[in-house]
Specification:
five-stranded mixed β-sheet, Ubiquitin-like (UB roll), 5 strands, about 180 residues, binds FE2/S2 (inorganic) cluster, alpha+beta, single chain
Length: about 180
């Protein structure tokens, strides 16, 4: 069972748009938030327990599985290993913030290839794929393998196919 923050900062003190110390501000999915609570609290706790952005999952809590992967300033990061202090001033994107007017190409490719099985790891897989394609628009098999997110259901072949499809949808690959 996923651990929960034993002393979560309530959502109510986090008010957007107020002039408060910038060192306590971070941006999540394009919206500003202020955090006055525990600076050592993992970002994952804040996302799930305070903001109720539960698309980001808790798996291992030790940075090993990737279920909690989000983007921090555009780069994949394991939210269970990022403290709130480290997140201050950063732009965080979660799976809830990936979609704009239409599905992100990675999300579209995931649907086309019917990647998810139980689904638990999939938000993290998608966020890692977004990061990979930003760095490597034409990823090799080795690039895809380097992601390192774990899937207990063994969806790796479909993840690979979906990433290659997302590369095409994103214009990074021609076939
Ligand atoms: S829960 Fe963060 S890496 Fe596993
Ligand atoms: S789809 Fe079940 S753990 Fe990956």
């Amino acid at each position: 069972m996923p651990k929960t923050n034993p002393d979560p900062t309530p959502a109510s003190p986090d008010k957007s748009g107020e002039a408060r110390a910038s060192t306590r501000q971070l941006t999540i999915n394009g919206k500003p938030y202020f955090h006055d609570g525990d600076a050592d609290m993992p970002l994952l706790w804040y996302l799930r327990d305070v903001l109720r952005l539960t698309g980001t999952k808790y798996g291992c809590g030790i940075g090993a599985c990737g279920a909690c992967t989000v983007l921090v300033d555009g780069k994949a990061a394991r939210a269970c290993q990022v403290t709130m202090a480290a997140a201050m001033g950063q732009h965080v994107t979660t799976i809830e913030g990936l979609e704009g007017d239409k599905l992100h190409p990675v999300q579209q490719a995931w649907i086309e290839h019917d990647v998810a099985q139980c689904g638990y790891c999939q938000a993290g897989q998608i966020m890692s794929a977004v990061d990979l394609l930003a760095r490597k628009p034409r990823p090799s098999d080795a690039d895809i393998a380097s992601i390192g997110n774990l899937c207990r259901c063994g969806t790796y072949p479909r993840i690979r196919s979906a990433i290659l499809r997302a590369a095409v949808l994103s214009g990074g690959a021609t076939s």
